[in-house]
Every structure is written in structure tokens, then in C-alpha cells.
Amino acid sequence: MDGETGMIQPVYGMIQKRFLVNESFGEVCAFLPGTTRKSSIVATRNSLLLQIDTRSLENFLAITNLSKINVLHSAAVQVLHDSDFDFFDKLSDEGLRDLVRHHCEVQVFEKDHVVFEEGDVGEKFYAIIEGQVDVLIKGALVRKLGRKAYFGEISLVLQNTNRTATIRASTKTAMLTIDKKAFRKFFAKQQGLMAGVELRIAGAQCQLRSILCHPKGFEYFAMFLEQKDQSRGLHFWRTCCTFRLWATSIDPQPDLAAIQTRAQEIYDTYLRSSDASTIILGEDIRKDIEGDLKNQEADAGSYVAAESEMMKLMSKMHLDNFKATEWFQRLLQYINTGRSSSSSPEAAASVAAAAAAAAAA
Hints:
Blueprint: E1 2-8, E2 15-19, H1 27-31, E3 40-48, H2 54-64, H3 68-71, H4 73-82, H5 86-89, H6 93-103, E4 105-109, E5 114-116, E6 124-130, E7 133-137, E8 140-145, E9 150-151, H7 154-157, E10 166-169, E11 173-179, H8 180-186, H9 191-202, H10 208-213, H11 215-227, H12 232-249, H13 256-271, H14 283-294, H15 304-323, H16 326-336, H17 345-360
Helix pairs in contact: 4-6, 11-16, 12-13, 12-15, 13-14
């Protein structure tokens, strides 16, 4: 409430951090009674502190309808900041705070609670704020994970993936969680960053969208198609993406004339030119685009269906063949250059599977 305290490093007696007016400490212990303090707190001048016990804090949250993330925000941000997961390493401090504040939750698991079982379909990523979990494969304990460790990242980037291990709380444990929907919503405007991590985690199981949203992946895939003289569809897809993002960015007061002009230029270049036959689109999609142009109703969504259709078509026609080329091996090598070791059991299993799949391709 008033005054100043210092957080003292246990071994060397050095002040690690100073807490001033309106700052707090000890939040984790409030949710995990019995947790050993990691540092000593010493008043560096006369101070007045407000102390809240576990029951009072829980009652306060229930009355105010606040979530645990409001209280553990600082601890959660620090856990992500200290982790070696690529997404968080490249985010600014403000970006991390925004991610935690608006897209994450805190869950507390009692000792022996099974977080998820081997074979379950994964939908969440977990990072341990405090506590410890057991990692079991086929019922056998293979390792323990503690504070700052994370797991479940594969479920964020691959569809319908099964958990590769069972996770069980070996102590009362607080975890930061992010589900797939919230994760993708936050990184929607950082496609390059998301694509890089998706490629690193998924490896040979990656989807074409991850390849094309990564600058180097797009470059290599374009070279692959140019060798076959089949790159026009790829450039049409990219033009559709660029148009959608551009038209969306000028809302809420869009320049309708400029949007109409650019939409017409795309149609003239790819769908009415002498090379239009190289762009394979369903008749309904073409008619919808032509209707928007004729009625002067072109908007950010005019080419969305075409964008989606081209992605499906390229995936069906070219993805497997691309993965069998040197271009794809170069991409994986580029993506994994300088990769730091991961604390995640899922990541280790994924890397091994990706390497085996790539070698067999």
C-alpha cells in the first residue's frame, strides 16, 4: 500500500527486484498454499502492506467474478518470457502482456489430477507457473516437468492430434493455458511468425498454408512450381490474400472506388486474360466474383472463396510432391537452424516423427 520492499536472491543476498506502491508479490502462494518461497522479501524502508489469505482471495474472486489470470498476470507473463517456445521469444513485453491478459486462462490442478491422457485429442497448450507434473507413456513415468516447462504445443498447430503422453499433477500445480482458437486469434496478424513455429513443430506433417505463409516456404514452393510452369495459380492465391488484407485494413471507412478498381484488376489479370484457363475455379465462385464487379459491390470478401479454393487445389495437386523434393528439405533445414532444445515431451516426439517421415519421403 505504501513504502518499498526488496526481493532478495536466496544464495547471494542480492536484491533482484524492488516492489513499490500498488505492486504485489506472493500471488502464486495464495493459490498454492504450502508452496516454498523462492526469495526473501525485506522492507527497505517503513512500509504498509495489505495481506490477503487464500480463502479471502478466493471469496474476492467469486464476488467480483474476476478470473485467476487477473491475479497471476505478472507470474504468467514471466513464465512465458522465460520459456524457450519460439512464439513467445519473438513477442515484445507488451505483446506478452496482451496475450496473457486477453487470451489465456489459469487452471489449478490438485495433486494426482490427470490433466489429459495419452490418446486424447489435444486442444490446449500448457505452461507451468508453479508446481510439478509427471509425464507418463503407456503408464510408465518417463520424466517430470516443473516451473517454466510447457507441453501441448502440437495441438495448437495440427488438426485432430492425439496426445503423445499422459500428464498428471504430482503436486498441486498452477498452469497457464491457451486453447487453439484463442492462440490463432492472437497470432492472426502475425502469419509469418505463426507459420515458422507451425513448420518447426509439424515438420513433414505440415499443411500447405504454413508453407505459403512463411517467406522462405513461399519462395521454395514458387520455385518448385515454376520448374513445372504451374506457378500462376500460386500467384493468384497470393494476390487474393493481399487484396483481402488490404481491403480489410482500410475499414471502417473504406475507399469503395479503390476496392472496386483493384478487384477488377485482379479479375482482368487472372480470370479474363489469355491465361485464365490455368486458374481452375468452380463456376459458382467465378459468378459470385463477376456479380460483385458488375454490381459495384466488391469488398474484402470478394476473393475469399477463390483464395480458399486455390489453397485446396494446390494442396491436392502439389503438396505431397513438394514434400518429396530437395526444396522442402531445404525449408525444414532453414526452419530448424539454430533451434534451441525444448522442454516439451510432445516436441521431442514430433521432431523424431518428422525426421523419419522426411527421410522416407
